[in-house]
Amino acid sequence: MTDVIQIFKYKELFTKETYTPQNRKHLNDLPVQISSTTGFLKEETVYLPLSKQKPGSTSPDLLIIQDLLAHDIPGDSWLQESRKAFRTIFHQDLYLKRSFELFKLKKSAEDRYDLHLDYESNSGTIGFPQRQDHKLCELIPGQPVRFRINGKSDFSLTGRKERTFHEFDYVIEWLGKAEKIEFLDTQRTKDLPLKFSNVINERKLLR
Predict the structure, then answer these.
(1) pLDDT in tens, 158-170
(2) Is the peptide bond between 129 and the residue preceding it cis, with omega within 30 degrees of 0?
(3) Domain, as residue range, for 46
(4) pTM score, two decimals?
(5) What is the rounded distance in angstroms from the CA atom of residue 119 to the CA atom of residue 68?
(6) How confident is the model at residue 178 (pLDDT cuts 50, 70, 90)?
């Protein structure tokens, strides 16, 4: 059996001039639906793109499917082409902490995953102010959570640069278990959760 976790990710990068109250208010609302080609779970079968098929590979213990979201914010958005990208991640050995995006994930019981913020490994991505690595919540099948965090950065490896502001928004849901995996190329409309069992907002007031 394979545990299947769906993640919807939003990331935005602002300059000091574009990090305005008017633009930030767009961050609160999530889309209701998106068009996706990343894969989906249906009746204990997970369907993945043909590009993910590898001859002779075994079914993983954990499968993470991620789709990228976009807000309708005026002005230039970061890496417009990246919004078309997706990731499908395979993991073995659920009882070890595994890194994914800004997080570490570890199965703690049959129906629980511990979700931790991994700031130490992602400080350059998130920015300041500093945070401590800590447990965010438990993931339970069918109980989606939302996590938000932001940060700012003023320096690059080559010297001083303009201050930038980073906004992250994740919707994470453990969909359930899959008995088998099939591969096909298909486009599917995905509904984002309307209610969350937990909303964790670690955004700070940035200037």
Answers:
(1) 556 688 999 999 9
(2) yes
(3) 2-202
(4) 0.87
(5) 21
(6) very high
* Confidence band, pLDDT 50/70/90 cuts, at residue 94: low
* Position 27 in a domain: yes
4 close to 178: Cβ distance less than 8 angstroms? yes
Question: pLDDT at position 157, please?
Answer: 46
Q: Give the Å distances, CA to CA, from 114 to 32, 74, 95, 103, 179.
A: 27, 37, 10, 10, 23
**CA distances from residue 36 to 3, 28, 53, 87, 192 in whole angstroms, order as listed:** 20, 22, 18, 11, 12
* Structure tokens belonging to residue 104: 């570490």
**How many domains in the chain?**
1
Which pLDDT value is given to residue 154? 81
Cα distances (Å, whole numbers) of residue 107 to 2, 7, 116, 153, 155? 13, 17, 11, 33, 37
- Paired tokens of 157: 């490896």
Within a domain: residue 108? yes
With respect to residue 139, please indicate whether it lies within any of the assigned structural domains.
yes
On whether residue 18 sits in a domain, the answer given is yes
Residue 32 is predicted with a pLDDT of 92
